[in-house]
Amino acid sequence: MLKGIAASAGYAIARVYKLEQPVVTIEKKEGVEPTTEIAKFDAALSKTKADIEAIKAQAEGKLSDEELAVFDAHLMMASDPEFEGQIKSMIENDHVNAEYAADTVAANTVAMFESMDNDYFRERAADVKDVTFRLKCNLLGVLIPNLSLVDEDSIIVAHDLTPSDTAQLNQYAKGFATAIGGRTSHSAIMARSLEVPAVVGCAGVMEACQHGDLMILDAVNGEVIVNPDEATIKEYEAKAQAYKEEKEALKVLLHAETITVDGHQVELAGNIGTPKDVEGVINNGGEGVGLYRTEFLYMNSQEFPTEDEQFEAYKTVLEGMNGKKVVVRTLDIGGDKKLSYFTFPEEMNPFLGYRAIRLCLDRKDIFRTQLRALIRASKYGKLCIMFPMIATLDEFREAKGVFEEEKAKLIAEGVEVSDSIEVGMMVEIPAAAVNADNFAKEADFFSIGTNDLVQYSMAADRMSEKVSYLYQPLNPSLLRLIKMTIDGAHKNGRWVGMCGEMAGDAMAAPVLLGLGLDEFSMSATSILPARKMINSLKKSEMEEMANKALTLATSSEVTQLIKDTLNK
Q1: Which member of 202, 209, 360, 499 is catalytic?
Q2: What are the structural domains, with CATH classification, of the chain?
Q3: Mean pLDDT, consecutive 10-residue segments, the chain of 568 residues?
Q4: Residue 61 burial by CB count (10 A; 0-12/13-18/19+): exposed, middle or buried?
Q5: CA 361 – CA 357 distance, rounded (Å)
Q6: Would residue 499 show up in a list of annotated catalytic residues for this protein?
Q7: Which of 95, 186, 264, 490 is catalytic?
């Protein structure tokens, strides 16, 4: 048995399909005819672009626009005239073979990206490797494994799965296990969208199995069992059947309220990235949208989207939710999210730099366009607008002032707008949590963004494997910040939601309920399991547990307290 991280819940029992990428050996050939090599390169580059287009087309309908955007980035890279020009120049000037030139330029590009201080550009090195590996294979006529051709029930085992690999998974892929990765990696996010069981960060899994071995994938407890005996197979077949029946039984909660045994009601909402994601929230019993990430409107465009384009998107979401609350986050760009048509300043640490509300307050022309589109759409539903990355009350006042100005202008123009738009803010900076009681006098609501709140509080990048042990949402220091935020809001009659990964975590839900959280916003597929759990709890008991958790010293102590309380 091997241990890993349960990234997408479920069970699978099937034969191993071991995904091993071909070994590409590049030899330098000198004195070749440039014209021939350039023609070979052009053909390989065209095939590489066509391959990426085909993978993207295959993934459409299975993945969200947010997840499909990675293939647009790969196409942009494959179409980069500078990259193409450097390879052709090397072929012409040095009279070397196309694959050697491509390998050399690719290696130099990867090294350049990896040496940069900017996290975003360092991460792009992986995309360069993905695209140029495909290009080199096409130059050499080497076949790249295609997971869409798997034709029998299988568990995919790999060192890692690229976005291209994950997009090719078909109905025969019953789950996957990877040696590296975490809950927020590309493959994990896509697995949850596809509802495919996945265990990631499972060190040694590639060495532990062979192609065709029988494997049990326990993506509930994060375990992998290779070549199990008959008794173990029967045990897990029973677990898988019970899990399937439990999932089916959850459907009776589709239209139920989320209410504790002792009568305390909370709201379960869904996180979305595009208007198309609304259907998933509705189909999974969502009581609203707790986070609409509007940045994907910008990232999937070749220029800043117009007011009318944005208006149509916001109107679609509000109408689709049929009067249920929709919390829209204003443009949260920067850090690891860039735009091809906008140049960000070079910064030592872009996550702590020019991004989100800081960019919007500096470029009010961009901000005003978005706010006008939102205000115009407000009459089609129950709209809440929240500003990301707020650190000071002055920032919030300035942002809300721009909102009030644009609302007044639209009313003066005779545009019909809602008179009940709520204007709130993300709490993801520790300074905002500590000062929550003052913010709550002026903000209509808070939404706690735990992904950033955890990494800012612990000074640890959650995407860094070396410091991943510091991603501790149940650390007492984090719970105290959350408690400060909730108490500050409730003292002023405001509601508090949470839209980070923690909101959909079954271990965290009981303590968050006890701390007084009003709204839990999560991926759509997590809503019904969360409703079942909360409906089985007593608010009074969870309050007692949460108060005790605040007095503990470590994350592991809190985890044990929650387990002990739930197992009483």
Answers
A1: 499
A2: 2-20+146-229 (3.50.30.10), 34-140 (1.10.274.10), 260-566 (3.20.20.60)
A3: 90 93 87 93 94 82 70 84 92 94 91 67 73 91 82 92 78 91 73 85 93 94 95 96 91 95 97 88 95 88 92 97 97 80 84 93 97 98 98 98 98 96 98 98 97 91 75 95 98 95 89 98 90 96 98 97 93
A4: exposed
A5: 6
A6: yes
A7: 186
